[in-house]
Amino acid sequence: MRELFLTNLNYIEKEDNKNILFLGDWVKDNSLFEKKNNLQSNNIFDSGIFNKEKISQIYKSNDKFRIKVFNALARQINKFHNLNYENNFWKIILEPWYTDFFETILFRYIIIEKLMEDDENLSCNFYNFLNQPQHFDWNHFITDVCYDDFYNQYLFQKLIIFLNRKKKIKINYTNDHKFLYESKKIASKNKLLNFLDIKILKTKKYYIDLNIGIKNYILLNFFLKQLPYKDKILFSENNNNIFFNDMSSQDKNLRQKIDIGIKPETYFETFFIELISSQIPITFLEDYKKIQNYIEKYLDFSPKKIISDKKYATNTIFKFWMAKSYTEGSKIITTDHGGYYGVKTANEEVRSISNKIFTYSKTNDENKIHVPIVHKLSKREKKLSKLLVITHGVCKYPHYVTTYPVSGQALDQIELVKNFYNTIPEKIYSNFYIRPYQGQGWNLNERYKKIFEPAKILIEKKKYEEVFKISKLVISTYPKTSFYESFLSGPSILLTNLDHFKINKEFDELHGILKRNKMLFEDSFEASSFVLSIWDNVNDWWSSNSTQEALKIFKSYLGYEKKNKIKIWANLIK
Known about the structure:
Layout: E1 2-5, E2 20-22, H1 31-36, H2 52-80, H3 87-94, H4 97-117, E3 122-129, H5 138-147, H6 149-163, E4 169-177, H7 191-201, E5 206-209, H8 214-223, H9 237-245, H10 252-255, H11 267-279, H12 288-298, E6 305-308, H13 311-314, H14 316-327, E7 331-335, H15 347-351, E8 356-359, E9 368-370, E10 386-390, H16 412-422, H17 426-429, E11 432-435, H18 444-449, H19 461-469, E12 471-476, H20 481-489, E13 492-495, H21 508-516, E14 520-521, H22 524-534, H23 538-542, H24 545-557, H25 565-573
Parallel strand pairs: 1-2, 1-3, 3-4, 5-6, 6-7, 7-8, 8-9, 10-11, 10-12, 12-13, 13-14
Helix pairs in contact: 2-4, 3-14, 4-5, 4-6, 5-6, 8-25, 16-22
């Protein structure tokens, strides 16, 4: 009987791993763990579900249930707080947490379901969890679900207990664990600045939460005929952290009264309905009134319009204020905050309540407006010599499954980059640099240090920006912000595995055009061969009629530019 490990937890190094099975390739997140334990493919369970077609099929077949439960949950939270708000109000508050949580449970459920379909009997050591995990808000949840071993161990254990009807998995309880939460650092508050901040904001018709650079921000406010003051106090991380540190404990008795009231039709539906009341973040239940009281006391103003590219989805205080303003007649405009490439994220659920949606991507959605790019993008200088590769990051555990690469698929880009580097000629080596994604997960800095000299790896942001400016060719490994920036700033290539990105089919035509013009590759060797052929005259290729025509089509899809772009935005906002 093989021993099953759900995460890296509980594992003790063994001389022989033939009787070991890990639930997923997320255990490879730690490169030392992977190397030390000499993990083979037969040591890692492959559910076979993380490809475009199956992901889409699984999600679509459960989407009606997702919506049905959201509507029921909104009613229950209204009842919990003795309120009567419409669903759009609760979309602002509950999303993107709700859809992200739904996706998290759905795909973990399918993994365990697939495991149970195998004939093999297994044993598994469980943790005895002494308390219920709780999350303050979406930010707290998203960090744990993406990277925390204990929270994922907890979820997988719950799923196994629910699905282990035939007792295929022998459960042994070993260690105890109690979920604890570290307080966040709090800076002192200046009451005078807070007072002046609110005074100024109350005079503004338009609250603008856009990261578009100082010059563009001033111009936009000029065209909107208001003071170009940007708030950095009211909705600051510091103010959100104060609420986090004062988080209440779960009220189990009150949560038990939440009745979704939907008759489940599948085992998954039964499990999800049973689980959700214990997993709702504290901000939506126990601390809801605390935050609302703060809003009413300190943020009692509602502008004519709220324009936001990020806070509408990620900032708890801002979301509560925006929801209140929405009920008082404020119009909502949500915009892309960077490269947004033909995918649908949980943020779309919040954006669906918008009066206007500004997007940089070409769209057939009549509720969205294709706008010119105003966000600040990096530019390149005239004297260019470097070859820069920009990589992407992926969560350790399955998340953003319906949009981006999943868990161990993060390692595919390393093979792409390594194969590319190993086949370029020596004359390019001295000019080669790589920018690993700077975030949690997958030890990318350390992994690339095993391939490249430390001086080639751009960890510091300042050094990366310096090299970007003088790069005569930029290669991105993912179709998001860096992909936009590079293509709009000069000679660039996208080297990636498109199967890992769940991009709308309407972009297939663009991909074909980019591939024909050597701007998109999915094969490292083809990419390196092409780079060698143009290296001495990169601008000849980039300025050729065919490449420029392809770039023009690219811009029509994704990089729409106009000289009077700020005025266009101002007119659309008005």
